[in-house]
Amino acid sequence: MLRFLTRRVIGAAVILVIISGVTFFLFFVIPADPARLACGKVCPPETLAQARHNLGLDQPVVVQFVSWLGGIFFGRNYEGLGTCPAPCLGYSFVNRAPVFETIIDRLPVTIALTIGASVIFLTFGVATGILAALRQGKPLDKIASISSLVGASMQIYFVGTLAMYFFVYQAHIFPQPKYIPITQDPLGWFGGLLLPWIVLAIIFTANYTRMTRSTMVENLAEDYVRTARAKGMSGRSVVLRFALRGTLTPIITIFGVDLGQLIGGAIITETTFGLQGIGRLSVRAVDNSDLPTLMATVLVAAGAIVVMNIVVDALYAVIDPRVRLS
Amino acid sequence: MTTPTSTAPEIDATSVTEAPEAVGRSPGQLMWLRFRRDRTGVISAAIVIFFFLVAILAPVISMVYGKDPYTLYGQDRPGLLNDFGYAMAPNGGISSEFWFGIEPNLGRDVFMQLVYGIRTSLLIAVVATILTTLIGIVVGIIAGYAGGKTDFFIGRIIDLMLSFPQVLFIIAFTPVVDQLLVPSNEETPVWLRAVTLTILLTVFGWAGLARLLRGQVLSMREREFVEAAKVTGASPARIVFKELLPNLWTPILIQSTLLLPALVTAEAALSFLGVGMGEQVPDWGRMFLRATQVYQNDITYLIFPGVALLIFVIAFNLLGDSVRDAFDPKIKR
């Protein structure tokens, strides 16, 4: 297990360095004057010169990239702007703050959005999947398969905006979506995120229902399930302790992918509901040509995907003893 | 590496190649027979064909309908838009003249925007699907068939591509392309934006299919029919094209029917995030972008593209399912 983890972590680190390198090269090297971009639209000459110096543009690209990488571990010192302690992901001229601070500031929004929605779509999706598998061909099964088809075909920017219109502005059932820290007001936190959670869940549930249903149908036909039944085990135990276990692997696979994508920035969801998370931050960084922030959000997003991949692979072995990590 | 459970359907090569000899039908005929019996499949195919026809016949529809997608009817004619730029008539200005209402502010005809918008979305999605599939096939077969170092190297590239935060990278990179190729005082030409989007969608799209096909080829490489071909002295090219490829058409076809609607929605999502087509080209994604800005005052402008896209995607997903069933009736869904 330890050897597996070490190897995967090294592999992941290599992938992250390559992704950062590609991003760095494309965005720092290709545009005509990155310093001007970093400095912003209204840019006095002295600020521009400082920006150029701070970005280290007088140095070769590789040196620039290495010092950026080094900053993550050792911190950097920006003359005239102050120090940027490790982990330093660069200094944003637009936000006038070290990028890492902004990321830490926005991360709770995205995490709260992701976790809340996951709880709903995971429980709901798996539950409907099991029920549909147990009642194959019955009305409930048909309703579940039709609604999961429709759900999977929906787009957040459409359904989310529609929900905002009807439930927030017309019927006033939900408050305007916003993020309030849970420590400050737990009820407000819940209410402010409830609508985004539900909309995200509507779209994501479908996948889990379909996946759970199909693997469950297969597992229920397996010999070991029949044996358990023949031994006189209750229907509930057979389903929950035997058949469900076999369905966990594919569910964890897609859950890992979804979680990685969502934590890396639910860009469209956050844009639709106006939530200021990592996704929104990255879009703003693109709009403002805020390269250091953009680099950091790319790194966070790629990191989330890579880490979730490792977690999923490690979990396989925990759930299914037949899987050998090699 | 662990052994992740493949979410893709297991393809049993024998089921495709071995048609019952007594009847004497080709696999294609069998597939077609099964497909025709599937009512959902036929209906969804009809809907998909309808969308393609609308895209192809857009100029004809425009002629019959008597309007084009470019004229700013609301601004040219007083009495259509109020001082705030919204349609005066209820429901976004739906009338016998403007079937789906009028676009807020610019005052273009929504029906025409929708009809011509399909062209943009479908063109980008179809081209990207074809390119993605081609690259996926080539890379997947090479990795699976060559094995060894080639396979390892390609596998790592696939890992890398799948770890990229794609949406973020595309919205970030598109302005860079503009900056590089377009002088700062000019607007980005439409074709350039379309080409950029198509290429970027392709660059990030092929890895998934390649990984899937690699697995298929890997499992087939050791089978008897490939060995037999090798023994008879068939060239690698012959083995790939005549022995392996015919067995891969099923997963390829299924994956590309699922890929196309995914790319249509991806294009719309990118436009929604601001890296889509300019004002001068009708585009569904831009309609969403505009609609989400004005929905509090004019919800109808959101509903038309939203429902149209939803119907298209549902029909295409259903079609994908039916194609899969027709090709491989053994798969249980």
Which runs of chain B of at least 5 residues are low in confidence (pLDDT < 50)?
1-15
Classify the beta-strand content of chain A into a percent band.
under 5%
Number of helices of chain A: 13
**Could you list the spans of chain A in which at least 5 consecutive residues all have pLDDT below 50?**
none
Task: Count the E strands of chain B.
Answer: 0
CATH class of the largest domain in chain A: Mainly Alpha
Number of domains of chain A: 2
Percentage of helical residues of chain B?
over 70%
Query: CA-to-CA gap between the ends of chain B?
Result: 28 Å
Question: SSE order of chain B, as H and E?
Answer: HHHHHHHHHHHHHHH
Percent of sequence in beta strands of chain B: under 5%
Structural class of chain A: mainly alpha
Element order, helices and strands of chain A? HHHHEEEEHHHHHHHHH
Instruction: Compute the average pLDDT of chain A.
Output: 83
Mean pLDDT score of chain B, rounded?
A: 81
Specify the helix fraction band of chain A: over 70%
Major sheet: arrangement of strands of chain A: 1-2
The CATH architecture designation of the largest domain in chain A is Orthogonal Bundle
Question: What does this molecule look like?
Answer:
- The complex is a heterodimer of chains A (326) and B (333).
- Chain A has helices at residues 2-29, 34-39, 45-54, 61-74, 99-134, 139-153, 156-170, 186-220, 223-230, 235-263, 267-273, 278-287, 291-319; strands at residues 76-78, 82-84, 91-92, 97-98.
- The mean pLDDT of chain A is 83.
- Chain A has two domains: 34-88, no CATH class; 100-325, Orthogonal Bundle (MetI-like fold).
- Chain A has a two-stranded antiparallel ribbon with strand order 1-2. In chain A, strands 3-4 form a two-stranded antiparallel ribbon.
- Chain A has 326 residues and is mainly alpha-helical.
- Chain B is mainly alpha-helical and 333 residues long.
- Mean pLDDT of chain B is 81; it is low at 1-15.
- Chain B contains 15 helices and no strands.
- Chains A and B meet through helix 1, helix 6, helix 7, helix 8 and helix 10 of A and helix 8, helix 9, helix 13, helix 14 and helix 15 of B.
